[in-house]
Protein backbone atom coordinates (compact mmCIF):
# COMPACT_ATOMS: atom_id res chain seq x y z
CA UNK A 1 0.00 0.00 0.00
CA UNK A 2 2.82 2.39 0.96
CA UNK A 3 4.74 1.56 -2.23
CA UNK A 4 1.63 2.23 -4.31
CA UNK A 5 1.21 5.61 -2.63
CA UNK A 6 4.86 6.59 -3.10
CA UNK A 7 5.14 5.37 -6.68
CA UNK A 8 3.80 8.52 -8.37
CA UNK A 9 4.97 10.95 -5.68
CA UNK A 10 8.61 10.16 -4.90
CA UNK A 11 10.06 10.68 -8.44
CA UNK A 12 8.34 14.07 -8.77
CA UNK A 13 9.51 15.02 -5.28
CA UNK A 14 13.12 14.04 -6.07
CA UNK A 15 12.96 16.01 -9.32
CA UNK A 16 11.72 19.12 -7.51
CA UNK A 17 14.39 18.81 -4.83
CA UNK A 18 17.12 18.35 -7.44
CA UNK A 19 15.95 21.35 -9.47
CA UNK A 20 15.74 23.55 -6.39
CA UNK A 21 19.20 22.48 -5.21
CA UNK A 22 20.75 23.17 -8.62
CA UNK A 23 19.12 26.61 -8.75
CA UNK A 24 20.35 27.48 -5.26
CA UNK A 25 23.87 26.28 -6.10
CA UNK A 26 23.86 28.37 -9.28
CA UNK A 27 22.71 31.51 -7.44
CA UNK A 28 25.45 31.06 -4.83
CA UNK A 29 28.13 30.56 -7.49
CA UNK A 30 26.79 33.50 -9.52
CA UNK A 31 26.87 35.77 -6.47
CA UNK A 32 30.45 34.80 -5.64
CA UNK A 33 31.56 35.34 -9.23
CA UNK A 34 29.81 38.70 -9.35
CA UNK A 35 31.47 39.95 -6.16
CA UNK A 36 34.94 38.77 -7.21
CA UNK A 37 34.57 40.18 -10.72
CA UNK A 38 33.27 43.49 -9.37
CA UNK A 39 36.47 43.86 -7.34
CA UNK A 40 38.51 43.21 -10.49
CA UNK A 41 36.46 45.66 -12.57
CA UNK A 42 36.76 48.29 -9.84
CA UNK A 43 40.52 47.82 -9.85
CA UNK A 44 40.71 48.33 -13.63
CA UNK A 45 38.15 51.12 -14.03
CA UNK A 46 38.25 52.80 -10.64
CA UNK A 47 40.72 55.45 -11.77
CA UNK A 48 38.55 56.59 -14.69
CA UNK A 49 36.94 59.95 -13.98
CA UNK A 50 33.68 59.23 -15.82
CA UNK A 51 33.07 55.77 -14.31
CA UNK A 52 30.72 55.42 -11.36
CA UNK A 53 29.85 52.54 -9.08
CA UNK A 54 26.68 51.77 -11.04
CA UNK A 55 28.69 51.56 -14.26
CA UNK A 56 31.11 49.07 -12.70
CA UNK A 57 28.21 47.07 -11.27
CA UNK A 58 26.66 46.89 -14.75
CA UNK A 59 29.93 45.72 -16.32
CA UNK A 60 30.31 42.98 -13.72
CA UNK A 61 26.67 41.93 -14.00
CA UNK A 62 27.02 41.54 -17.77
CA UNK A 63 30.30 39.64 -17.43
CA UNK A 64 29.17 37.28 -14.65
CA UNK A 65 26.81 35.04 -16.71
CA UNK A 66 29.57 34.12 -19.14
CA UNK A 67 31.96 33.25 -16.33
CA UNK A 68 29.25 31.37 -14.44
CA UNK A 69 28.50 29.37 -17.57
CA UNK A 70 31.92 27.77 -17.30
CA UNK A 71 31.03 26.45 -13.84
CA UNK A 72 27.61 25.00 -14.73
CA UNK A 73 28.72 21.33 -14.61
CA UNK A 74 30.09 21.85 -11.09
CA UNK A 75 26.92 23.72 -10.15
CA UNK A 76 24.87 20.69 -11.18
CA UNK A 77 27.26 18.38 -9.32
CA UNK A 78 27.15 20.27 -6.02
CA UNK A 79 23.42 20.89 -6.33
CA UNK A 80 22.80 17.17 -6.83
CA UNK A 81 25.05 16.26 -3.90
CA UNK A 82 23.14 18.70 -1.72
CA UNK A 83 19.79 17.27 -2.85
CA UNK A 84 20.77 13.62 -2.33
CA UNK A 85 22.42 14.32 1.02
CA UNK A 86 19.35 16.20 2.20
CA UNK A 87 17.04 13.37 1.13
CA UNK A 88 19.23 10.81 2.89
CA UNK A 89 19.52 12.79 6.13
CA UNK A 90 15.74 13.10 6.33
CA UNK A 91 15.46 9.34 5.68
CA UNK A 92 13.23 9.97 2.69
CA UNK A 93 15.43 7.83 0.46
CA UNK A 94 15.51 5.14 3.12
CA UNK A 95 11.72 5.01 3.07
CA UNK A 96 11.75 4.91 -0.71
CA UNK A 97 14.24 2.05 -0.79
CA UNK A 98 12.25 0.17 1.83
CA UNK A 99 9.17 0.62 -0.35
CA UNK A 100 10.86 -1.19 -3.23
CA UNK A 101 12.37 1.66 -5.23
CA UNK A 102 15.63 0.79 -6.98
CA UNK A 103 18.54 3.18 -7.06
CA UNK A 104 17.79 3.81 -10.74
CA UNK A 105 14.25 4.94 -9.96
CA UNK A 106 15.70 7.37 -7.43
CA UNK A 107 18.43 8.74 -9.72
CA UNK A 108 16.35 8.90 -12.91
CA UNK A 109 14.22 11.96 -11.96
CA UNK A 110 17.34 13.97 -11.14
CA UNK A 111 18.92 12.86 -14.44
CA UNK A 112 15.85 14.03 -16.36
CA UNK A 113 16.03 17.40 -14.59
CA UNK A 114 19.75 17.67 -15.40
CA UNK A 115 19.13 16.87 -19.08
CA UNK A 116 16.42 19.54 -19.30
CA UNK A 117 18.64 22.07 -17.53
CA UNK A 118 21.46 21.19 -19.95
CA UNK A 119 19.24 21.72 -22.99
CA UNK A 120 18.10 25.09 -21.65
CA UNK A 121 21.70 26.04 -20.82
CA UNK A 122 22.77 25.26 -24.38
CA UNK A 123 19.79 26.68 -26.25
CA UNK A 124 18.94 29.72 -24.11
CA UNK A 125 21.57 30.51 -21.47
CA UNK A 126 24.54 30.33 -23.86
CA UNK A 127 23.20 32.91 -26.37
CA UNK A 128 22.09 35.27 -23.59
CA UNK A 129 25.41 35.08 -21.74
CA UNK A 130 27.32 35.58 -25.01
CA UNK A 131 25.24 38.67 -25.81
CA UNK A 132 25.80 40.07 -22.31
CA UNK A 133 29.53 39.44 -22.62
CA UNK A 134 29.54 41.41 -25.86
CA UNK A 135 27.61 44.25 -24.23
CA UNK A 136 30.06 44.26 -21.34
CA UNK A 137 33.04 44.53 -23.69
CA UNK A 138 31.45 47.44 -25.56
CA UNK A 139 30.52 49.20 -22.31
CA UNK A 140 34.05 48.76 -20.99
CA UNK A 141 35.44 50.23 -24.22
CA UNK A 142 33.16 53.28 -23.87
CA UNK A 143 33.97 53.81 -20.21
CA UNK A 144 37.69 53.27 -20.38
CA UNK A 145 40.39 54.82 -22.50
CA UNK A 146 41.85 51.32 -22.73
CA UNK A 147 39.86 48.90 -24.87
CA UNK A 148 39.40 45.36 -23.56
CA UNK A 149 42.46 43.34 -24.50
CA UNK A 150 42.28 40.53 -26.99
CA UNK A 151 45.74 39.16 -26.21
CA UNK A 152 47.31 40.36 -29.47
CA UNK A 153 45.38 38.08 -31.79
CA UNK A 154 46.27 37.81 -35.47
CA UNK A 155 43.91 38.19 -38.43
CA UNK A 156 44.63 36.98 -41.95
CA UNK A 157 42.83 38.65 -44.83
CA UNK A 158 42.92 38.97 -48.61
CA UNK A 159 42.07 41.54 -51.24
CA UNK A 160 42.09 41.60 -55.03
CA UNK A 161 45.76 42.54 -55.34
CA UNK A 162 47.44 41.35 -52.15
CA UNK A 163 47.06 39.59 -48.83
CA UNK A 164 47.92 40.72 -45.34
CA UNK A 165 48.20 39.71 -41.72
CA UNK A 166 46.97 42.11 -39.06
CA UNK A 167 47.85 42.05 -35.39
CA UNK A 168 45.48 43.96 -33.09
CA UNK A 169 46.26 44.63 -29.46
CA UNK A 170 42.62 45.37 -28.66
CA UNK A 171 39.22 45.68 -30.32
CA UNK A 172 35.80 47.15 -29.70
CA UNK A 173 32.39 47.48 -31.35
CA UNK A 174 32.43 43.83 -32.38
CA UNK A 175 35.60 44.06 -34.44
CA UNK A 176 34.81 47.32 -36.24
CA UNK A 177 37.56 49.19 -34.38
CA UNK A 178 41.06 47.86 -33.71
CA UNK A 179 43.75 49.58 -31.68
CA UNK A 180 47.54 49.31 -31.70
CA UNK A 181 47.51 47.71 -35.13
CA UNK A 182 50.39 46.20 -37.08
CA UNK A 183 49.73 45.00 -40.64
CA UNK A 184 52.12 42.99 -42.82
CA UNK A 185 51.11 43.24 -46.48
CA UNK A 186 52.25 40.57 -48.95
CA UNK A 187 51.96 40.19 -52.70
CA UNK A 188 49.89 37.35 -54.14
CA UNK A 189 53.13 35.38 -54.56
CA UNK A 190 53.84 35.71 -50.84
CA UNK A 191 56.63 38.35 -50.92
CA UNK A 192 56.57 40.96 -48.14
CA UNK A 193 55.47 44.28 -49.63
CA UNK A 194 55.06 46.66 -46.69
CA UNK A 195 54.51 46.98 -42.97
CA UNK A 196 51.96 49.40 -41.52
CA UNK A 197 51.78 50.45 -37.87
CA UNK A 198 48.78 52.50 -36.77
CA UNK A 199 47.16 53.69 -33.56
CA UNK A 200 43.67 52.75 -34.71
CA UNK A 201 41.96 50.91 -37.56
CA UNK A 202 38.29 51.33 -38.43
CA UNK A 203 36.57 48.81 -40.67
CA UNK A 204 34.73 50.35 -43.61
CA UNK A 205 32.99 48.68 -46.54
CA UNK A 206 35.83 46.70 -48.15
CA UNK A 207 38.78 48.41 -46.48
CA UNK A 208 40.42 49.39 -43.20
CA UNK A 209 40.94 53.07 -42.44
CA UNK A 210 44.14 53.35 -40.40
CA UNK A 211 44.76 56.49 -38.34
CA UNK A 212 48.27 57.91 -37.82
CA UNK A 213 49.85 55.16 -39.88
CA UNK A 214 53.59 54.60 -40.24
CA UNK A 215 54.30 52.75 -43.51
CA UNK A 216 57.56 50.96 -44.28
CA UNK A 217 58.03 49.58 -47.81
CA UNK A 218 60.82 47.41 -49.13
CA UNK A 219 63.49 49.64 -50.71
CA UNK A 220 61.62 52.89 -49.99
CA UNK A 221 61.71 55.69 -47.42
CA UNK A 222 59.28 55.21 -44.47
CA UNK A 223 56.16 57.36 -44.71
CA UNK A 224 53.70 58.76 -42.19
CA UNK A 225 50.03 59.14 -43.11
CA UNK A 226 47.24 60.77 -41.16
CA UNK A 227 44.88 58.25 -42.80
CA UNK A 228 45.85 55.12 -44.71
CA UNK A 229 43.53 52.67 -46.48
CA UNK A 230 44.08 48.91 -46.52
CA UNK A 231 41.80 46.71 -48.61
CA UNK A 232 40.12 43.72 -46.96
CA UNK A 233 37.66 40.94 -47.74
CA UNK A 234 36.54 40.58 -44.14
CA UNK A 235 33.31 41.67 -42.53
CA UNK A 236 32.99 42.99 -38.99
CA UNK A 237 31.48 39.66 -37.93
CA UNK A 238 34.46 37.73 -39.28
CA UNK A 239 36.90 40.05 -37.52
CA UNK A 240 34.99 39.73 -34.26
CA UNK A 241 34.95 35.96 -34.59
CA UNK A 242 38.70 35.89 -35.20
CA UNK A 243 39.38 37.98 -32.11
CA UNK A 244 36.73 36.48 -29.86
CA UNK A 245 37.07 33.66 -27.43
CA UNK A 246 34.99 30.71 -28.63
CA UNK A 247 33.31 30.59 -25.21
CA UNK A 248 31.92 34.08 -25.81
CA UNK A 249 29.86 33.03 -28.85
CA UNK A 250 26.33 31.75 -28.41
CA UNK A 251 25.21 28.29 -29.50
CA UNK A 252 22.95 29.42 -32.36
CA UNK A 253 25.63 31.74 -33.78
CA UNK A 254 28.38 29.12 -33.87
CA UNK A 255 27.40 27.39 -37.18
CA UNK A 256 27.57 30.68 -39.10
CA UNK A 257 30.80 31.58 -37.32
CA UNK A 258 32.34 28.24 -38.35
CA UNK A 259 31.25 28.78 -41.96
CA UNK A 260 32.49 32.37 -42.16
CA UNK A 261 35.79 31.41 -40.53
CA UNK A 262 36.35 28.72 -43.14
CA UNK A 263 35.54 31.16 -45.94
CA UNK A 264 38.08 33.62 -44.54
CA UNK A 265 40.78 30.95 -44.76
CA UNK A 266 41.08 30.56 -40.96
CA UNK A 267 40.89 27.41 -38.89
CA UNK A 268 37.41 26.89 -37.36
CA UNK A 269 38.53 24.09 -35.03
CA UNK A 270 38.12 26.03 -31.79
CA UNK A 271 34.58 27.04 -32.76
CA UNK A 272 33.73 23.47 -33.80
CA UNK A 273 35.03 22.30 -30.44
CA UNK A 274 32.85 24.81 -28.60
CA UNK A 275 29.81 23.84 -30.68
CA UNK A 276 30.23 20.15 -29.91
CA UNK A 277 30.84 20.91 -26.23
CA UNK A 278 27.55 22.78 -26.02
CA UNK A 279 25.73 19.93 -27.77
CA UNK A 280 27.26 17.48 -25.26
CA UNK A 281 26.41 19.71 -22.29
CA UNK A 282 23.13 17.93 -21.34
CA UNK A 283 25.00 14.59 -21.30
CA UNK A 284 27.70 16.14 -19.09
CA UNK A 285 25.05 17.38 -16.64
CA UNK A 286 23.53 13.89 -16.47
CA UNK A 287 27.02 12.51 -15.79
CA UNK A 288 27.38 14.95 -12.91
CA UNK A 289 24.13 13.64 -11.43
CA UNK A 290 25.46 10.08 -11.64
CA UNK A 291 28.72 11.11 -9.98
CA UNK A 292 26.77 12.85 -7.21
CA UNK A 293 24.75 9.69 -6.69
CA UNK A 294 27.88 7.55 -6.32
CA UNK A 295 29.34 9.79 -3.58
CA UNK A 296 26.22 10.84 -1.68
CA UNK A 297 23.64 8.03 -1.76
CA UNK A 298 23.76 5.64 1.14
CA UNK A 299 26.27 7.50 3.32
CA UNK A 300 26.16 7.16 7.08
CA UNK A 301 24.62 10.00 9.02
CA UNK A 302 27.79 10.54 11.07
CA UNK A 303 30.49 12.25 9.05
CA UNK A 304 28.81 11.37 5.77
CA UNK A 305 28.37 14.92 4.51
CA UNK A 306 32.08 15.67 4.54
CA UNK A 307 32.80 12.38 2.78
CA UNK A 308 30.22 13.11 0.10
CA UNK A 309 31.47 16.64 -0.51
CA UNK A 310 35.13 15.62 -0.67
CA UNK A 311 34.30 12.68 -2.92
CA UNK A 312 32.25 14.89 -5.23
CA UNK A 313 34.98 17.52 -5.44
CA UNK A 314 37.57 14.86 -6.23
CA UNK A 315 35.47 13.16 -8.88
CA UNK A 316 34.42 16.46 -10.43
CA UNK A 317 38.01 17.70 -10.54
CA UNK A 318 39.20 14.53 -12.28
CA UNK A 319 36.43 14.83 -14.85
CA UNK A 320 37.21 18.52 -15.29
CA UNK A 321 40.89 17.80 -15.99
CA UNK A 322 39.91 15.05 -18.43
CA UNK A 323 37.53 17.43 -20.17
CA UNK A 324 40.15 20.17 -20.47
CA UNK A 325 42.72 17.76 -21.89
CA UNK A 326 40.18 16.48 -24.41
CA UNK A 327 39.15 20.05 -25.26
CA UNK A 328 42.76 21.11 -25.87
CA UNK A 329 43.34 18.08 -28.07
CA UNK A 330 40.17 18.80 -30.01
CA UNK A 331 40.95 22.53 -30.41
CA UNK A 332 44.45 21.65 -31.64
CA UNK A 333 43.05 19.27 -34.23
CA UNK A 334 44.59 16.10 -32.80
CA UNK A 335 41.15 14.64 -32.02
CA UNK A 336 37.86 15.16 -33.79
CA UNK A 337 35.87 17.87 -31.91
CA UNK A 338 32.85 15.58 -31.49
CA UNK A 339 34.99 12.83 -29.95
CA UNK A 340 36.78 15.29 -27.66
CA UNK A 341 33.49 16.84 -26.49
CA UNK A 342 31.64 13.61 -25.76
CA UNK A 343 34.45 11.46 -24.34
CA UNK A 344 34.57 12.96 -20.79
CA UNK A 345 30.80 12.67 -20.37
CA UNK A 346 30.72 9.09 -21.65
CA UNK A 347 33.67 7.96 -19.52
CA UNK A 348 32.27 9.64 -16.40
CA UNK A 349 28.84 8.12 -16.97
CA UNK A 350 30.19 4.60 -17.53
CA UNK A 351 32.32 4.73 -14.39
CA UNK A 352 29.43 6.08 -12.30
CA UNK A 353 26.99 3.48 -13.62
CA UNK A 354 29.52 0.76 -12.82
CA UNK A 355 29.76 1.94 -9.21
CA UNK A 356 25.99 2.20 -8.87
CA UNK A 357 25.49 -1.28 -10.36
CA UNK A 358 27.96 -2.68 -7.86
CA UNK A 359 26.08 -1.04 -4.99
CA UNK A 360 22.68 -2.09 -6.28
CA UNK A 361 23.37 -5.67 -7.32
CA UNK A 362 26.66 -6.42 -5.55
From TrEMBL:
Subcellular localization is given as: Cell membrane
* Protein name as catalogued: LPS export ABC transporter permease LptG
Q: Where is this protein primarily located? A: membrane
Q: Which UniProt keywords apply?
A: Cell membrane, Membrane, Transmembrane, Transmembrane helix
Residues that span the membrane, as ranges: 14-36, 72-91, 103-125, 278-299, 305-322, 334-357
This chain is encoded by the gene named lptG
Q: How does it sit in the membrane?
A: Multi-pass membrane protein
Q: Which domain of life is it from?
A: Bacteria
**InterPro entries on file:** LptG (IPR030923), LptG/LptF_permease (IPR005495)
Amino acid sequence: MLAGTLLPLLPAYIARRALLAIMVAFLIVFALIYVIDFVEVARRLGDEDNVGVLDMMQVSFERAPGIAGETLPFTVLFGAIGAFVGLSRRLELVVGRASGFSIWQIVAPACIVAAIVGILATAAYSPVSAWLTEQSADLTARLSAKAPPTGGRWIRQQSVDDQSIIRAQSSSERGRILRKVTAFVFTQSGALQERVDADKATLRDGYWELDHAHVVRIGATPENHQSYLLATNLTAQQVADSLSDANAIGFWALPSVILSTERAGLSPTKFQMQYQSLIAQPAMFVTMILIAATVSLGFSRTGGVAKAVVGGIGAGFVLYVLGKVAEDLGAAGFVAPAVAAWTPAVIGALMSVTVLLHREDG
